Amino acid sequence: MRLDKFLKVSRIIKRRSVAKEIADQGRILINDRPAKSSSQVVAGDTLTIKFGNKTETVKVNQIVETTKKSEAENMYKIIDETYAENFD
Q1: With contact defined as beta carbons under 8 Å apart, do 4 and 47 qualify?
Q2: Which residue of 10, 16, 45, 66 shows the fewest CB atoms closer than 10 Å?
Q3: Is 31 within 8 Å of 54 (Cβ atoms)?
Q4: pLDDT in tens, 6-64
Q5: Could you please report the per-residue DSSP string of 53-75?
Q6: Are the beta carbons of 2 and 40 closer than 8 angstroms?
Q7: What is the DSSP string of the chain?
Q8: Whole-prediction pTM value?
């Protein structure tokens, strides 16, 4: 499955156009390699996604073409979540 579609279907990113934009800016790594929005994602891959202040690392558990909101969490597992700045 394409990276941008996976991010949308799994609801990590809400819109596919936003997922495409982030990927094409080089802010997503698949198995520690830069990824484009058209890169293929398979079960077992590790995705590192750089949001503004947050960097999230997730492991892909399964690939499903369509899913309900309640089942979307089963598609991935959050491995790590770090913040560049802590505002506490």
Answers
A1: no
A2: 66
A3: no
A4: 999 999 999 999 999 999 999 999 999 999 999 999 999 999 999 988 999 999 999 99
A5: SEEEEEEE----SS--HHHHGGG
A6: yes
A7: -BHHHHHHHTTSSS-HHHHHHHHHTT-EEETTEE--TT-B--TT-EEEEE-SSEEEEEEE----SS--HHHHGGGEEEEEEEESS---
A8: 0.87
